[in-house]
Fold these 2 entries.
Entry 1:
Amino acid sequence: MKKISSNASVLKDSTVENDTIIAAAKTDSVSENKNLLKAENSEENSDFDNFYKKLSEAFDREDITALNQFIHPKYGIYFVDRPGAIDAVDTAKNIKAFYRRVYLSKHRLKGMYCKLTENKIPATVCDKQYTGCMAEKASNYHRISELKTALLKYGFKENYRPKDDAQLPQFEKLIKRNIANFDKAVGISFLYVDGKWYIGVIDMAKYSCSA
């Protein structure tokens, strides 16, 4: 009986030891995954910051060649403007077309660079004084499709100008980051395609509090 008791004790100790090892391994694995995720996020943020700085510098120089490199050749850019009391949506495949169609766009896009504060961008900005810049990871971006629905529903068909937007659902899925420059009243949403950032939407209406 003593031998059985001794064996049971050894078995119990072995089980406890194994459980401890497994628990430690799980903890190490979770910790390692968190560190990897943190590193990936840090790398992505650093990558985006560098991209955004170069983009802002190109806007400052009005460097057409450089700016066109920031536009995806397949998706182009959407832009939202407010030429009157109602928002309008259009698309362009190059920056010259955008500059031609949006009044004072060159002026408003100069001086866009500022320190990006990571925070959820408020949906409504005209009820409070916001300054500086905010950046957020985009999820479920639907601004263009929502504007399309509203403009067509309420009889403002002429304010939704894209001729062919069959790719819009896929386009919106690729929007991965939003920034808002409250001093310039401009928002830009960015596509992330094949490991590269591109301008997706230039929104000159959402953060403008003028009627």
Entry 2:
Amino acid sequence: MASSDKAFKLDIVTPQKLFFSGEVTSVIAPGLDGLFQIMKGHAPLLAALKSGKVRLSLSDKSEDSFQIEGGFFEVSGNKAILLTEDVS
């Protein structure tokens, strides 16, 4: 499937494994000061995360969500990496 013009690459990594790697159009994550949303073209960012729900809008227009146990979120160019202790 061709990636959307609005999509960007996201990797979600735990110490044990690569949990997710793919194209998304939006990520909503639990920052220390509240929820924040990342979309393609976002300014570079490094943010600490608290435990909570992460929501993904995938490039095929489906959605997914899961719980994380804190971590960090980095955006650079059109790539984002979410590092977390655990995902469920």
